[in-house]
Design goal:
The chain has helices at 23-26, 30-34, 39-46, 51-72, 135-141, 144-152, 155-176; strands at residues 15-22, 81-83, 89-91, 100-107, 110-117, 121-127, 200-205, 208-218, 221-228, 233-238. The strands form three sheets. A four-stranded mixed sheet has the order 4-5-1-10. Strands 6-9-8-7 form a four-stranded antiparallel sheet, with helices on one face. By secondary structure, it is an alpha+beta fold. It binds coenzyme A.
């Protein structure tokens, strides 16, 4: 007899739940997760040229559907998504249903899901390979002030500080939903060598406050999450097959 699936914790009002998925742990359930996908997702999955991209998409989308299915007491394949003009998926909910917000990111072997009860949320995870930090990338990511701060950092702190700020900016853009249509260089958040912090507050424009956290799920992956509101806290959960 199979164990009934465990339910992820309830979503508190001022809390963002961050679910880290080690994709290798989900790989044995690839077929099962593939069967949760909608027709358009199956079509998209079929267009990936590389098996690893196919797997990353199916595993992360499938776990996302299963997770949302738990919260709505619905089959994963019955979850319906809407898409913003910039491609950000959101839940198509009926009146009276909890307006759960979510965001997803994946990079190589990891995926990260952020979930909140109604607060816009953005997440980003990146495999942190220092050799990809070129002058072009620095110019594409950092504001002029941050570039000065970057150069002033001791050389051995630069890569870490860069990936922390890069994932933070990606998470902000994904929370706003604008994707890369808003240049990252226009977000001037400041670069430090202090390393990951407790949740911090950032402001993207007057009156628009966000709570943010940056962390290293493992030594070679940086991640950030951002949720709207100045008093959000972050709760961490590592995905396990008990949540299938
Ligand atoms: C959103 C974006 C920043 C993601 O960047 P990335 O680092 O390559 O990818 P990540 O793994 O962090 O995130 C991908 C996930 O973010 C979500 N996503 C897609 N578009 C998004 C957006 N505009 N905002 C927030 N999240 C988005 C999806 O769940 C996606 O997962 P999927 O690829 O499995 O569907 C990038 O794709 C982008 O700039 N998109 C906007 C493009 C655009 O303007 N399109 C307009 C025509 S559709």
């Amino acid at each position: 007899m199979t164990e009934p699936a465990a339910t992820p914790p309830p979503l508190a009002l001022h809390e963002a739940l961050l679910i880290l998925i080690r994709l290798e742990k989900a790989l044995p359930y690839l077929d099962e997760l593939y069967r949760c996908l909608s027709h358009d997702e199956v079509e998209r999955a079929g267009r990936f040229a590389f098996e690893k991209d196919f797997q990353q998409f199916v595993l992360s989308r499938g776990v996302l559907r299963r997770t949302l299915g738990h919260y709505f007491d619905r089959e994963a394949q019955d979850i319906k998504f809407d898409y913003s003009p910039y491609g950000k998926p959101s839940l198509n909910v009926s009146a009276g249903e909890t307006p759960i917000c979510f965001n997803l990111s994946h990079s190589y072997l990891l995926a990260l899901i952020g979930l909140t009860n109604a607060a816009p949320v953005g997440v980003d995870v990146e495999r942190a390979r220092p050799e990809i930090i070129t002058d072009d990338l620095i110019r594409a990511v950092l504001s002029p002030r941050e570039r000065v701060q970057f150069t002033a950092l001791p050389a051995h702190h630069r890569a870490e500080a860069f990936f922390e700020l890069w994932t933070l900016k990606e998470a902000v853009l994904k929370a706003i939903g604008s994707g890369h249509t808003l240049p990252m260089t226009e977000l001037d958040l400041g670069l430090t060598q202090e390393g990951p912090k407790e949740a911090r507050r950032i402001s993207t424009k007057p009156g628009e406050d966000w709570s943010a956290i940056t962390f290293w799920p493992q030594p070679d992956y940086a991640a950030s999450a951002v949720a709207k509101g100045h008093e959000m806290t972050f709760r961490f959960l590592e995905w396990d097959r008990q949540y299938l």
